[in-house]
Amino acid sequence: MTISEALNNRRCMRAFKQDPIPREVLIKVLKDAAQSPSWANSQPWEVFVAEGETLQRIKAAYADCYAKAVKAEPELSRPVEWTDAAKKRQKGLYPDMVRDCGDAAQQFGVLNQRMFDAPAVVFLCKDKILNHWSVFDLGAYSQSLMLSALENGLGSIVAVTLVNYPEVLRKELNVPDNLQLIVGIALGYTDENNAINNFNSARSPLEENVTFCQ
């Protein structure tokens, strides 16, 4: 698989099989991700991998929070507004999902709340003293992780819903107080029988967001 093939074939998968991921596969993916670039080689990512009973407790606690309508409070604040161009792209998201997935699109919200039934979730943190440039580095790490996952036969999805309830994650993962939870990435073997995974979001043509200056 070439880099171009990986970039064009990677998609966010929203339903996973229950099969556990072999530890050697996870280690391979994490080692690949660690090759990501960072400011002055600072490598600011602090990584927690939830599997097995730990992940089941997290999922159960999240389900309880959703049932009680507990307000989601991710530690990296959500965007408060979007540009008109971003709103236009977002507006077509659900109709396109219905186009690709049919009735399976109705699972979208429920699967989000169930962490997509993933057998492993990678949680990325950074030290609180670091600023937004380190978040940029964590973004590079995330992309590397998901591309390596694809090469190693895994599906992935990065989602803010995975870090909706930091107090749950801090308790179950023993996250130190000096770290800020940034985002989660669910990993697993894609459930090919679930049509929700047929979704392929559109990309804007280059002329909408690229300017060549000569």
Summary?
It contains 8 helices and 4 strands.
Distance between the termini: 34 Å
Reading the helices and strands in chain order gives HHEHHHHEHEHE
Number of self-contained structural domains = 1
Helix coverage percent of residues? Answer: 25-40%
Total of helices: 8
Strands in their spatial order, largest beta sheet: 1-2-4-3
Structural class by SSE content = alpha+beta
Q: Give the rounded overall mean pLDDT.
A: 96
The Rg value, from CA coordinates, equals 18 Å
CATH class: Alpha Beta
**Unreliable spans:** none
Care to count the β-strands? 4
Strand-residue proportion: 5-15%
* CATH fold assignment: NADH Oxidase
How does CATH name the architecture? 3-Layer(aba) Sandwich
Largest sheet: 4 strands, antiparallel
Shape: globular
The fourth-level CATH homologous superfamily is NADH Oxidase
Explain how this protein is built.
By secondary structure, the protein is α+β, with helices and mostly antiparallel strands. The protein has a single domain (3-197), classed as NADH Oxidase (3-Layer(aba) Sandwich). It has helices spanning 3-9, 23-33, 52-67, 84-91, 93-101, 108-113, 132-151, 166-173; strands spanning 46-51, 120-127, 155-159, 179-188. A 4-stranded antiparallel β-sheet has the order 1-2-4-3. Helix 2 crosses helix 7. The longest helix has 20 residues, at 132-151. It starts with a helix and ends in a 26-residue tail after the last strand. The mean pLDDT is 96.
What is the secondary structure topology, with strand pairs?
Elements: H1 3-9, H2 23-33, E1 46-51, H3 52-67, H4 84-91, H5 93-101, H6 108-113, E2 120-127, H7 132-151, E3 155-159, H8 166-173, E4 179-188
Antiparallel strand pairs: 1-2, 2-4, 3-4
